[in-house]
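Write out structure tokens for Alanine--tRNA ligase.
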Amino acid sequence: MKASEMEYRLKFFLDNGFQRKECKVCKTPFWTLDRTREDCADIPCSDYHFLDMKEGSLNWSVSESRKKFLEFFRKRGHEIIPPKPVLARWREDLYLTIASIVDFQPYITSGLVPPPANPLVISQPCIRMDDVDNVGITFGRHLTTFEMGGHHAFNYPDKFVYWKDETVSYAKEFFTKELGISEDLLNFKESWWEGGGNAGPSFEVTVGGLELATLVFMQYEISAGDYVPLKLKIVDTGYGIERIAWFTQKTPTAFHAIYGNLVDTFFDKLGQPRVDSELLRVASRFAGRIDPDNISTLVEHRNLVAKALGIPVDVVKDELNRAARIFQVLDHTKTVALMLGDGLVPSSSGEGYLGRLLIRRALRTLKFLGTDVKLSELVKLQINFWGYDFPQLLRNRDYILDVVDVEQEKFQELISKTSSLSEFLSKSKRSIGLEDLVELYDSNGIPPDIIADELRKKGIQIEVPHNFYSIVAKRHQVAPLKKDKDTLKLPEHIINEVKDIRATEALYYKDQYARSFDATVLLSKSKYLVLDRTLFYPEGGGQLGDQGWIILNGDRVRVVDTQKVGDIVVHILDREINLEKGMRIEGEIDWERRFRLMRHHTATHVVLAAAKKLLGDHVWQAGAEKTPQKARLDITHYKPLTAEEIRKIEDMANSVINDRRPVRPFEINRVEAEMKYGVSIYEGGVPNKANIRLLEIEGWDVESCGGTHVWNTGDIGAIKIVKTEKIQDGIIRLEYVAGDMVSRYARELEDKLVNVSSKLETSSDQLEMKVEKLLREHQEAKNLIAYYRKEALELLSRSIQERSINGIRLIILPQIKDQELEKELMRRLTSQSKTLVVHITQTNGELRVDLGTSRDIDVKGVVERLKEMGGKGGGRGTFGSMVVANKSREEIIDYIKETIERGGL
């Protein structure tokens, strides 16, 4: 969409003498005080002239730039808001925090809830993977991680804060007074912005070729491709904190401004000579001319740099390519540290996929640099460098470094398979396109350029897109929409019929220990019943819907399930009834079942908090289910749990139960909840409400939850973890029982012990001694069998007769019932060249033919011959196995002899 000129014709510009011009290069309108300016002072229309400016030479670090920005707006009435994690876990549509406005979408920007302050200012660490392949190549224009300084104002119909003129005025004041940039160097380039489902006109603030900020005036919601005016008018600005630091330092590249002496440390650590700073400075000055999607511009850039410095273009190319790889490792290791520090667990899906992609891209770059430095050593440098700015890096240091080491080990295992994979591809694929490369990466995880190198050795040329990782990242950066599970068990006609009924009064929240109630019928259709109020909890949050009875004049009708449509509870009965609207009925829940569900649901909160406290902040609920019999919890974790860890989680959970801690549900404004407790309250999902229901276990856990729970942890009774397993990469499942189900589980184990003891003819208390005795006897028997097997092998080896046919040693073994002996004998006999060993045994009225050959004979010839006589089975290489019916042993042997005589091997 393109906004009208009037959206940009501000009173501020007209009052202060700014002129609207059109850039002679890109034809984009911009506002400036410089009467002589002909371009918009943005790349590629202008080179990075700011590197040669004296203005703004303040030598601010990233930390200082952040502090100056926040303090400037604090003094002007903006409240400083702490940043959110780089993992957007308060959003169900995004994995990563890509901009500061993401912190406030969609609930604040839609007007559902008020902002934490108005106006406010924030410096939000962001991660964008869209241009990951361009990092380093453009000397800092592209980064995967950056800080967005945003000052935001939320204008309501009845409350105006400030809008366009004030926003532009703030920008002018910040850049002129704080950075000392002359007014006539400031340019406001007209633009349009879209993101996170919102849109609006914007200005890009450019100076000397560098865009320092974007001023967005969010006034539309994008719905089904249409631009719908928002109720709110939102000031959404993005100041580049790293770019401000670069502008004030004027270092050869943005990486030098961001990382300081860490740049040289990385060059040294990776065993690479440092690149000449003047070469980098000239390369950066012309970097705006590089369009990474157009390779020819990169060639032109290298030629331009070579000409400016009077050195060979090949030297320029090699040096800048080498520098780009160091810069990539710098950028990626910081991003990886931030991702892991905020709790990401590498995996093959979701946010974990993006984290693993970046780790493997960094490892691939290290491989190309020919270094054996561990990636974790480089990540440790980033933790030490950024720990003051981002305390979560220091807090989670051990986890971060351990995960990186684990991922590097997995990567090395993958690389070891590259040769065999390329061998397979060279035989099975005539051509390999982009979709093949993406599928190979998703299924195998091996970087495509490494596979391409192996295939080139085999004479197969494949083209790997220069932006391959960006393509893959874009496909995985948006979370799939979750289906509404509330209505899946209800027929569509019932959903349509009940959706306009008033919300059901949730008695199950008012008294979770109540068992019976009375209510009025609002709708009765077939076996579906809606009441004005109910104690029956509808399925949700991983908890099954209640069961029980509806009582009508002494007649008890079974409620087999409870579901919901929005805020309307639907009772599903075991038979059809037709009740009149307005009729009074009684209801009674199945208390024993409900109490078990309450215990298991509360136990889930206890176990999750125990796992987080023991394993680390990276533990996140990936799924849960509570039934009357047991509960399960899926958590994010990067390796299987040890027996000791399981025991500790169980002990911690039972300690909380013994403490008899109060369990308190309460409602709170979602913004207040996030500010007070953090986004970890969304472990079980993100509710779409202004006020959310939290469950607090005193001194242990606070989490958003709509389920039913016990009032005190002591009511859980006890918790026993009965099973743990890795269900997919990065996800561990715990299954456990609580309350009286613990004794039932113990009883089942006891029954198994009694049963085993009976079979071993001993008592339960003597079972361990009996098993130890049996194990000793079993080992003695194994040793004896091994001795007899060795003796038999020697005897058989000496007594076996062989015959030579066409230079082939044919050996027919006698019938051997010991399969291990047969295998060992075949291995020994086929160690000599030109040997075929045949073993024929009777099995269920058929003859089984096992074939073994030396390495210089392929068993396929004999297998195919036996198939001709009706055999079933197969084989390749040095082993085959067939089943032949209706043939005698002698016929099969003659067939094999004939095959050898004909030269069939």
